[in-house]
């Protein structure tokens, strides 16, 4: 699921919590509750009950819950069997497990063209 260069877990939004606003982190962010806003992080994990409504700029993302917005990933997006993504997706690799849902447009690019680069957002 993750590469060996996964940074430490920096932020957790618990199942009983909701955040409204943007999040920027150089580490891993886990969302088990709700986030209404944009997120920029090295890695984002959306748990089965988690929901993000906003855009994401990441190196990698794992979606086990719901994501509504644009995802720009410099490496990988993994939609798990319980995952539901609604919006456009730009990535170098995309994996959708049996049962996972994706509604939107997908565009595959070289990693240097999009996404997160060590705390720096690069334009597509």
UniProtKB/TrEMBL annotation:
<comment type="similarity">
    <text>Belongs to the bactofilin family.</text>
</comment>
<dbReference type="Pfam" id="PF04519">
    <property type="entry name" value="Bactofilin"/>
</dbReference>
<dbReference type="InterPro" id="IPR007607">
    <property type="entry name" value="BacA/B"/>
</dbReference>
<protein>
    <submittedName>
        <fullName>Bactofilin</fullName>
    </submittedName>
</protein>
């Amino acid at each position: 699921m993750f590469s060996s260069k996964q940074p430490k877990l920096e932020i957790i939004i618990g199942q009983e919590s909701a955040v409204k606003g943007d999040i920027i982190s150089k580490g891993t962010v886990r969302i088990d509750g709700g986030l209404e806003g944009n997120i920029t992080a090295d890695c984002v994990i959306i748990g089965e009950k988690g929901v993000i409504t906003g855009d994401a700029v990441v190196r990698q993302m794992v979606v086990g819950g719901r994501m509504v917005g644009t995802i720009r990933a410099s490496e990988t997006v993994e939609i798990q069997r319980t995952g539901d993504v609604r919006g456009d997706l730009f990535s170098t690799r995309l994996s959708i497990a049996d049962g996972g849902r994706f509604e939107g447009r997908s565009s595959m690019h070289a990693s240097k063209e999009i996404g997160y680069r060590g705390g720096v957002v690069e334009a597509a």
